[in-house]
Amino acid sequence: MATRKRISITRVLILAATVVLSIAVLILAAGLVFQRSATKLDEQRYPMPGEMVEVNGHRMHLDCRGQGNPTVILDAGLGDSASTWALVQPEVAKFTRVCSYDRPGLGWSDPAPGPRDTRHVAAQLEDLLQQAHIAAPYLLVGHSFGGYNQLVFQSLHPDQVVGIVLVDSSHPDQVNRLPGPSIDDYASDLRRKMLGAPFGLQRLTGWCRDDYTFPNVPQPWQQVAPVSIALDCRTPVFRTTYNEMLAFRESGKQVAAVTTLHALPLIVLSHDPQVGIGFPPQVAKEGEAKWNTMQEELRALSTNSKRIIARTSMHYIESYRPELVIQAIHEVYEAAKTGQSISAATTEQ
Question: pTM for the complete prediction?
């Protein structure tokens, strides 16, 4: 009798486990279908600008507008897409050719295997420009991690680059000097998001929406932000961002080797320390002071440089104060064309 009872309990447990497993499989399958369907809908709602270029067996998105030279190359921040330049690129296209692009696995670009450190990113950018027949000279613009990539690109091709604009650029030693959560803490959070992305969790939880919903941002960015949000919701994005984050220390070491730009025209744009970049409250004062010091060190890379602190702006100056980014690009553009110096003291605008 006891044996039959044990068999009965075992059968019930097996049945219960089967039901639970079946429900879990159905939920995951539903998540996959939801993510694919939502991605297809986004593609219809927000058609890709520019073109897809074949680069070493994978396709990269490149969007070039305007005419003239030097060609301005826009490089977005870690995990960001070309869409973050939506308020800048059309205005720059009024006075010269300007190209934004998506690194593999971000924006409209296909994922691709291989390291995600900044030297490899710079090499991929070189291959992209060659395949698309976008010839030098270049005026490089980089936001955040994009600043890493542009500094390394310049060091590899100094004869092709006529000027640089750094938009609240990362500093090669920031992982060692900034207070607050470590790069490993950020990577751990991204790993969790990466695992849930194929099942649409980033959409259901608002992870991709939160990435581009900035406090007190002007109306123009709110109007274009849905494109960045939709692209951030694509399945490969969190894995690519995670891999860029894992390589961030190595990328910093590579940028640290860039010790001088000589007299290359350089403008450094920095966020407003009164608004902040998002440091935890207990270390915000220390973090902002160190960020300010590191931004000055970036400015010191060139003897022909200046720095502008963008009032009211957080980290994404191209979203808060796009007119300052456009102005800086135009000033470096004119300096490259005329040879006129842009050296000046640090100011707030």
Answer: 0.93
